[in-house]
Amino acid sequence: MSINKVLDGIQNSNNDDSEWLPISDLMSGLMVLFLFIAISLIMQVRQTAEKYKDTQQAIYKALMQEFEKDLKQMGADVDQKTLTFVFNSPDILFEAGQSTIKPSYAKTLNDFFPRYIKVVNQYKDHIEEIRIEGHTSSDWKIGVNSDTAYFENMRLSQERTRAVLNYVYNIPQVSQYRPWIKENLAAVGLSSAKTIKDEQGHENKSQSKRVTFRIITNAGEQINQIAGEWQ
Questions:
Q1: Are 172 and 203 spatial neighbours (Cβ–Cβ below 8 Å)?
Q2: CA–CA separation, 206 vs 209, rounded Å?
Q3: How would DSSP label each residue in the chain?
Q4: Per-residue model confidence as pLDDT tens for the chain (231 residues)
Q5: Distance of CA 195 to the CA centre of its chain
Q6: CA distance 64 to 142
Q7: Which residues are bridge partners to 129 per DSSP?
Q8: How many other CB atoms sit within 10 Å of the CB of residue 82?
Q9: pTM, whole model, 2 decimals?
Q10: Sheet containing 210-217, strands listed edge to edge, beginning at the edge strand earlier in sequence
């Protein structure tokens, strides 16, 4: 092989490299950019999650500060993980198979809801929705199959939660909160979809009959907004 051919080969090789180097640099730059975006997104999501935990804890503490001394009398509990205020004494809520609020429960709601909405109002910027959820046992009338029982209990649980929403909405002490209530409170009947079970997996039919007020924060909405900003 002549020296000229070797030099020509080196020159051609250099020419090829000169074409590929800018593309290689561009790919490296894009990888660094995507890595930066990913890290920034992860950090923002993590900060939002931490803020959500702090807000959730603050709401729980505020509810307990307001109601802890009265929970036993109300026949209620507060679930810290889900921010759910649970009325779990069916004997004071409704008559069996009925959706008319019993006087004993009306008295409890008169005391509970004005205090509850006052606490919630402090955190309204962090709340997406409050769901009044109605739960039943899996029972219905004797001889009725499980499918019919489920849908009859669905109807009953929906009627009960609407009755509760209608009642608390019309309590005079909460009139100033009604615009917010109309936008953020929902009545949801869940039938026997979320029954209470013991350690052996057997349904506790008495505890399954309950009404709950569950706070849903807007952490998910904030995370979706962060993701949308990067799209």
A1: no
A2: 6
A3: --HHHHHHHHHHHHHHHHHHHHHHHHHHHHHHHHHHHHHHHHHHHHHHHHHHHHHHHHHHHHHHHHHGGGHHHHTEEEETTTTEEEE--HHHHB-TT--SBPHHHHHHHHHHHHHHHHHHHTTGGGEEEEEEEEE--S--STT--HHHHHHHHHHHHHHHHHHHHHHHHT-GGGGGGHHHHHHHEEEEE-TTTT--B-TTS-B-HHHHSEEEEEEEESHHHHHHHHHHHT-
A4: 444 444 455 455 455 555 555 666 667 766 766 676 666 656 665 665 566 688 889 999 999 999 999 999 999 999 999 999 999 888 889 998 899 999 999 999 999 999 999 999 999 999 999 999 999 999 998 889 999 999 999 999 999 999 999 999 999 999 999 999 999 999 999 999 999 998 888 999 888 999 999 999 886 554 444 444 444
A5: 19
A6: 41
A7: 216
A8: 14
A9: 0.74
A10: 76-79, 84-87, 210-217, 127-135, 185-189
Q: What is the CB neighbour count within 10 angstroms for residue 134? A: 28
Burial of 172 from C-beta contacts in 10 A (0-12 / 13-18 / 19+): exposed
Structure tokens at 114: 């004005």
Only one residue has tokens 């092989």, namely 1
* CA gap 57, 99 in Å, rounded: 34
Adjacent-strand bridge partners of 84: 79, 214
Tokens of 71: 């929970």
